[in-house]
Design brief:
The strands form 2 sheets. This protein has a 4-stranded antiparallel sheet, with helices on one face. A 4-stranded antiparallel sheet has the order 2-7-4-5, with no helix packed on it. It has 2 domains: 133 residues, Serine Threonine Protein Phosphatase 5, Tetratricopeptide repeat; 98 residues, Jelly Rolls (Sandwich), CATH 2.60.120.380. The protein contains 7 helices and 8 strands, in the order H-E-E-E-E-E-E-E-E-H-H-H-H-H-H.
Amino acid sequence: MKYVFSRTLGLLATIATLSGGFWLGATLTASAQSILEEQGNIEPALEEYPITIEAGDVIAIIMTSEDFDTVLSLIGPDGEEVAFNDDYGGTLNSRIVYEAEASGDYIIQSMAFDGQQGGDFDLEVRLATAYEMAFNQAQLSLEAQDLEGAIAAYSEAIELDASNPEVFLGRADAYFGQALSEWEAAGNFDEDEAASFEEQFLEDLDPEIRDIIVADFETAADLYEAEGDPFTAQSLREQVQYIETGEFPDATGAPPLE
């Protein structure tokens, strides 16, 4: 996922690459049993699966492959595409979380990104968990720059499962974006000042919001470290130092490669 404010703040520019793969730790309820499970080989790189969905159902369509870059599309009863996903959660796998507006026969299209290369894949369709729905809503809200909605949805996802570092990074991004929007609206940026845009913003950042953002970054770093990814954890901690001081650590102080 491309974080919407990374282009504005240099300190967030690496979040998209640091946020790693999407992880689902939520336990499925009895009503969230699998609707469809498929294993196959795409040759050529397109397969279609018909599925009936009732209005109001929220389904999760998950396609994974170690052989190729997956793409998912969901075609509605009227023949129009109602949902699409290429890369999800920083991986080349695909996931659609979709709430059906109308009952009827839908078609899932599973594809390879280049339209030619095929390979083995797994496809699962089931009712979405509460965690998936909250996380998906958070991402949609962030992309739409509904920052208050994104913060609320990310917080809900964290309450349901606090094991996914990407959720904490997304909430931090939303808080940054909200603070930046308010700061710019107040006319705080002075082009004549010697300090850069980022330095001015960080200097003016509300300490309470700074603490929330730092806590989310540190939690994400701890989670990555627990998953066996110390390099991403270290990068996030360097981001924390920049948020707190406006300076990155000296490269000479980086831990040695093992």
